Amino acid sequence: MTHTTLASLAGAHKRYGKITALDGFDLAVKRGELLALLGPNGAGKSTAISMLLGLQVPDKGSAELFGHAPQEIDGRRRIGVMMQEVALPGVMHPRELLAQVASYYPTPYAVDAVLARLSLVNLADRPYGKLSGGQKRQVQFAMAICGRPELLFLDEPTVGLDVQAREALWRVVRELLHEGCSIVLTTHYLEEAEALADRVAVMARGRLLVSGSVAEIRAHVSRKLISCVTRLEADVVRGWPEVVQIDMERERMQITTRNAEALLKRLFREDPGLTDIEVKRAGLAEAFTELTSESAKEAA
Amino acid sequence: MNTTGNMSGARLWSAYLGEMRFELIKSLRTPAFAVPTLFFPIMFYVLFGIFLGSMRGNSAMSQYTFATYGVFGAMGPGLFGFGVSLAIEREQGLLTLKQALPQPPGAYLLARAAMAMLFVAIISILLTLMAVFVGNVPLTFMQAVQLFAIDVFGALPFCAIGMFLGALVSGQASPAIVNLIFLPMAFLSGLWLPLQFMPQFLQDSAAIWPAYHLGQMALSTVGAPSVGSFSEHVAVLAAVTLGFFLLAMRRMHGRGFRLLGARPKRSLAIIAVACVFILLFALSGVFGGNPVRPVDASAVTDPSAAAAGTPALEAPAGVAAPAMAVISDFDAGSANAAFGIGWRAAGDDMRGGNSTATQRLVDGGANGSKGALEVSGVIGGAIQYPFAGTMFFPQGPPMQGLMDISGKKTLSLRVRGDGQRYMLMVISGLMVDAIPMMYDFETGPEWREVKLELAGFANADFKRVKAIGVGTMGPAGPFRLQIDDVRLE
């Protein structure tokens, strides 16, 4: 049972009028993994998640949750959901909200245990409407996990959270993974995906661009990042063929390149006084930018 | 970790119950919902039914308003609970989240409907306690139970209408739109003011409002005059419920919401069959006719049928007139009467005219008595048959209660005035727009007696007298008249 597919989209198409949201999208969520779904705005992430949750039906292709159509309640009794934009009734207390959601599941966690796990005990009996934005997100996260889900959908879970709250949420996410829960995460914070994900799926314009581990995605990308202090003018260096992009951070020059060796030779040739050199493999953020911008160029 | 999505029956049942409890607590904690729905009907009843009614020395008023404010109370929770909350929760993503979560099918709708019915039950019980212990409304236990059931189940058509509105309009607009339907419908259905006080076209069109049908059932239950049979009313209400529910479901489905789960057809079929059954039962007369005061207008309009002793004449007569002879002597400093609602100045503005009348108590009554009632005003030319004067309602709500004065022989009063001709009229019978019995008399500076032998007026229905009036139908211009010592002997 270790590599069973829990949820999948196969050749999913969805159009809204003239806009194609999904254009033959394939995705499979395996047991025990944390899959991060990345993509620029309008890539079709929300539509894909909506289909897995049964909120949308593909025009063509199929969506499955635990082997059922996601509209069937049996499959959904095994998932937890945290959505990005939802207003819960402000007059109700977190304890009541949790108890209500827990009642939908066959074998939920005890409400008090979930409150304690997320350090929400002190907020449990206050009106939800009086909580801060970050506290509300934590309550929503608690609602997502209280049903003891086998598969958890988290849509931008850490937006609006301060650093401690984010760390705490990441800790619980890692614990859940350790306990065998599978997670689908959509996020704009690439460091979040880098920190948590076993597998990353990058999508753009309704299609899957690439999917693999964070390291594999990085390896897709030949770019490296050179950072140094130099007397050379940024405008001169920008004209060199090895250079993809230049950013200045005060006196430091950040150069993105596809050919680090050739660029380093030339830098030393032109400025023997070059100091403070760092060479880094591009991170997920750079990879993501490269992948999606290439895909945009192809489309153009 | 659970490996299947199976829920035990007990857990499923408790999920439904929990949803209802959650909805109830939420509603009670939301003042914008709880205050208008829960307290307005009760406050209005206390103010207009009990307080105003007792000021006019009339408990029948609190009886009429007891029935109609119960219906008013039955409208609010469903209309607002579905109309406003559904629109807001639909827009704010809560409904979407609930649909992604394994909320049991139909739990959202059931919880809301149950909440609305429970609110109505609370309103109905409070109103009943008020009516019996403060308003002195005569009510049997069975009447109270029947009225309770009418109010509580009567919440359902308004749930369906509210749901339709909630599916249609934006959350921001919904409170205004629901109010725009709620308040005029309550008024036009005769819940605040008896329909007889409204222009004819409004009386004629009242039957298009579901609240009218519920109101007539409630009125009939407390023994006030009403129109139509229970069967007709139940049939109309069942059809309204089903119709709006189906329209709302269609609209919600178009917006991507599956309120009845993945397989809504089965639930929809059950609901539709239930409504059709109620409709068929209603049409076959299971709910019975109007047990208290059936009004068969067609029989009444046909004089030959009436003379032949058909149902019109068998319709229950009004309350028997008290044995006392003097209705009013105006010596105690008020326009009250020995029974019924006292004398009220009346113009013809209800019928669209511009004639006005005011009344006041004056010193120096007939035969050296202490006081008399003076009516003065202006007859206008706005309508064909103007009227201004003062009216006396012997029994119950104006133009609704009936009194049987057939045991009396004469109706008399003393008058003096500005020399113009005035008339004494008796409005009777079950027809709403029947021509009243009228008797002309002259006035002068001295008191004189006007005395009618009731036996001489064959076209009046003295078993069912609604009002006795004194006034003028013209000519246009000012008038002034004093009356005293009104007797029914």
What does this structure look like?
The complex is a heterodimer of chains A (300) and B (489). By secondary structure, chain A is an alpha/beta fold. Helix content of chain A is 34%, strand content 29%. Chain A folds into 2 domains: 5-218, Rossmann fold (3-Layer(aba) Sandwich); 222-281, Alpha-Beta Plaits (2-Layer Sandwich). In chain A, the strands form 3 sheets. In chain A, strands 5-6-7-3-8-9 form a 6-stranded mixed sheet, sandwiched between helices. In chain B, strand 4 (356-363) and strand 5 form a beta hairpin. Chain B has 2 domains: 9-294, no CATH class; 319-488, Galactose-binding domain-like (Jelly Rolls, Sandwich), CATH 2.60.120.260. Chain B has 489 residues and is an alpha+beta fold. In chain B, helix 2 (31-55) runs antiparallel to helix 3, helix 2 packs parallel to helix 5 and helix 7 packs parallel to helix 11 (230-254). In chain B, strands 2, 4, 5, 8, 11 and 13 form a 6-stranded antiparallel sheet that branches. The A-B interface holds A 53-56, 66, 69, 71-79, 81, 83, 85-89, 91-92, 96, 99-101, 103-107, 147-148, 150, 153, 179-181 and B 1-2, 4-8, 11, 14-15, 18-19, 22, 25-26, 29-30, 92-94, 96-97, 99-105, 256, 258, 261-262.
